[in-house]
Please model this.
Amino acid sequence: MGHGSMHQSASAARTDQPLLSLRNINMTFGGVKALKNVTFEVRPGEVHCLAGENGSGKSTLIKVITGVYRPAEGAIIEYDGDVYPHMSPVTAQERGIQVIWQDLALFPEMSVAENIAFHEVLGRPRLVDYSRMRQIAIEALSRLGITLDVDLPLKEYAIAQRQIVAIARALVGEAKVVFMDEPTASLTQSETDYLLEIVRGLSASGVAVVFVSHRLAEVLEISSRITVLRDGALVGVYPADGMTQSKITELMTGKTFDQHVRARAKDDQPVVLDVRGLGSPGQFEDVSLTVRRGETVGITGLLGAGRTELALALFGMLKPTSGTFSIDGREARFASNRDAIKAGVAYLSEDRLSLGLIQPQSIADNLVIASLHKILSGGLLADDRKRSLVARWIADLGVKIGHQADAISTLSGGNQQRVAIAKWLATDPKLLILDSPTVGVDVGARAGIFDIVAKLAESGLAIILISDEVPEVYFNADRVLHMAQGRIVGIYDPHQTRLEEIEAAVYA
Model:
């Protein structure tokens, strides 16, 4: 189904009368005003974006709409011709208000059919009609133009297919408006394109979709209108036409971000990393590149291009079978990541939550874990050394914390990422590999992280910056390498190339 035909039918399905309208929405938790006199509306068949930083009130507003939270006195919720002082979860479900949360809330052990037609087993006890459940599931998937084996356990499917199962389940609930919370956070570019096509299809069939996403390029591509929240208050409602990523970012944060190409030639600097013909079967092959002192080299490409595998090889966690690489002129043969750390390589993994940081442990313990040798005194941990090391990096990177002893899980995504960077800087590396450092970090905190990257490069650190968002490497790297199917297929100088050219090559 082409984009044009969908958009025509979508506009035909729309009216200017709101399907859902909220006024005077106030919500307080423990004395803190989470929502301040917010208004919000969605039209039938509209794709509407709800934008705001973490903590701006987006999730709270969705929970008010779905009846999870009860707003303060004076709220007015109008939905499909009826007026409510507040919603209940049962009314919201019955009236076709559906939410697909980021964690999807599905049952991995159960079959696709059971996940989609789950409502069939709710209510009074009775025998489960499996053939009816299968039929409901197949029909819901066919509405999305999808065929899946509905008898397979959900856990057999990748995250992209699970998203589709969650959407199909919403359709079974006769959805009129579907809220999607960060639906593309774990998807590749091609999976994201596919999901956006499904959203267009829902819109064309008259289902309104409210899209919550940190990835602003998608927001602009898919939405007709954008509602921006900041600190629990409404900033405004804007048409997506004519809106830019930098303008949305300014509205969300209240700050101006100057997006400019930071690239500088570093040809006169000594080579820190020299990679020659490096390969690992099925992961990457014949990769050659250099990173000089003070240089930031960006590596972009679709997920599955071999970027992370290359990083793991440089960090001693994956053994290359061909080619060589050297650090400061010395050939590196790492038996483990311990050898890599000793040689001056630091690697910030993409998966901060499970690989980068230990969530229940303190901020201080997380920060010093990779550099314990520096705070040992006679074989024991010296508390004063630990405290001063932590204080130094917290101050250097501008991490907002309560106490060093607080659990790392108490920090926002952006501040957790700063601690994860500090953990590696405390090892005094020569080469820092940052693998998708802004995943799960909201738009305001991203600028701060890239300011840190720029300062580190200025201080002489060699940096590899990996991201599947081309603008991130374009604006923040000195050179951009495009990786596809395990090979480097393009090298770009941001001063000589337009952003659109690189995006066309990567996303083609």
In short: Residues 1-14 have pLDDT under 50 and may be disordered. Residues 189-204 form the longest helix (16 residues).
